[in-house]
């Protein structure tokens, strides 16, 4: 029997193998094979860890009922643009497609974009709500965010058994609501909502970048970076800048 080349073994190791198959490769003394095995072991361990975390998030949600709505926001801290919230009710029979769903901050922009499409495809129900710059300045950021979350929940076609928010307490809801500290790390539904909110807000800021390329919104998403502050000093304040946020408020005096 012809001995497999290192390249052939690397290709085989792109898939999960049985312990018997692995044992044969572990006896291969070639350095390239052993390096490939170490890479394989790290990848499999990472995948199993991710799946275990996925199962924990599912179990967390299931403890609150069959139809659990996860709610999260994106954009409370920036100096410009809206705050965006999302509410997601996941289909328990279709969650296996969402193993890689995690806190949006832990994912690359490309991963968030890909997962957002999967969430929209496999969710039982979801909504996305925008609270404008004007609403933020009129109400304050906390109230604008909580109002946006309540609107997102009310717009769901599926009435949830329970609503889980990422640390935001909501008042006057018709269904039980629980704020979960670091909820996007504990609940799959909240993590899914965090991805939808983040990708929707990023898309808005990318469009704003096309209208006002001198501000660099596609790079900093409206946060108070040195680049953004310098652009404000050079080009002035636009309608999307939050008047009640510093240093915008002081710059307007």
From TrEMBL:
Domain RNase H type-2: 66-253
One Pfam match: RNase_HII
EC top class, as a word: hydrolase
Obligatory cofactor(s): Mn(2+); Mg(2+)
EC numbers: 3.1.26.4
Catalytic activity: Endonucleolytic cleavage to 5'-phosphomonoester
Residue ranges the record marks as coiled coil: 3-57
Signal peptide: none
Cofactor annotation comment: Manganese or magnesium. Binds 1 divalent metal ion per monomer in the absence of substrate. May bind a second metal ion after substrate binding.
InterPro entries found in the cross-reference section: RNase_HII, RNase_HII/HIII, RNase_HII/HIII_dom, RNaseH-like_sf, RNaseH_sf
Assigned protein family: Belongs to the RNase HII family.
Purpose: Endonuclease that specifically degrades the RNA of RNA-DNA hybrids.
Name of protein: Ribonuclease HII
Gene of this entry: rnhB
